[in-house]
Amino acid sequence: MGKKKKCIGLIFGGCSNEHDVSISSAKTVFQAFNSKINKQRFKVKAFYINKYGDWLDSDISEQILINEIENNTTKTQGVFNQEKINFLDGIEFQNVDIWFPLLHGFNGEDGSIHGLLKFTRKPLVGCGIIGSALGMDKILMKTIFSNLKLPQVNYLVFQNEDLNDQEVKKKLTREIIKKLNFPVFVKPSNSGSSLGISKVINESEISQALEKAWGIDSRIVVEEGLEVREIECGIIGNSQLLTSEIGEVKYESVWYDYNSKYNLNNKITIPAEIDSKITKQIKEIAIQSCRTLNIFGFARVDFFLEKSSNKIFLNEINTIPGFTKKSMFPMLWKASGLNIEQLVAKLVDISLDL
Ligand SMILES: Nc1ncnc2c1ncn2[C@@H]1O[C@H](COP(=O)(O)OP(=O)(O)O)[C@@H](O)[C@H]1O
Ligand SMILES: [Mg+2]
Which of 79, 188, 228, 308 is the most buried (most CB within 10 A)? Predict the structure, then answer.
């Protein structure tokens, strides 16, 4: 007799500015679990969280994944309304064996979903609360990387500042000009997909960029901008972390902003054409940085390679990387010998410590 199929609880959507990306990622993962080979081992129960934070039942959620209904329309809104204290009432999750949270950005990737799921006492794909929270917060992530003396671009941190006050804005502008060279990148500490980020080339643009970032998060990072190649490395594993091949992404725009991230004309090269010594160094830093932040399961570690000096800078770790067919993470693993069907099955095995 065959073994009982494992039920994967796929959580997607979410109250985040990366809601739509999450749906695309979940569609890919859903298909991969429903492939001929994986169907023998797994079944999927879908859990869609709409933009308002309401959890929708599995039938509606699955219909979104197979395009039968449009996501987040009024039809799906308020099925479980926010005022309900027991917001999971009506959500059937007893049969789930393993959670697969695919929520990008805040209210998910930041550790909140990991905290909630912990109470179900079921394993999950990905890391825990601490790693997720640190991976999402650029200020804390950078502070820890600085302590480890990992190579990073020069940066400043602004928090607890009232940007409604013109004098405060002037003070911050003076500090940026004094301590960093243009161009600079102004970023919300918590966001993703480049949302809220501006590339600033002179003093006159600083104020607007600060406001844009502040609109997303009152904690802001300002970084010295370099002319860079963008290099990414996948990791999977538990007690032992494995690195994928290294990839490079080239885009048509000036920097890797929201639109260019989801532009199908991007050129991805795997393995990236870089010196083998640098490749080795990138893989080592990828593992070291994940270990330090307690990140395991799966993640994508992003680097900058400065064009003029060929120096590496650690940019960030994404603990729930994009998972669409065109996303770097599955492509890196495909080039490393795991196609998408094998990859999702492997991630489940890792979560079960198999
Ligand atoms: N210091 C920098 N130098 C050059 N480009 C940068 C710098 N910081 C950010 N960028 C550009 O902005 C993009 C998004 O920045 P990132 O910090 O990775 O934000 P997100 O978490 O939204 O992906 C990068 O992929 C890169 O193209
Ligand atoms: Mg990034």
Answer: 188
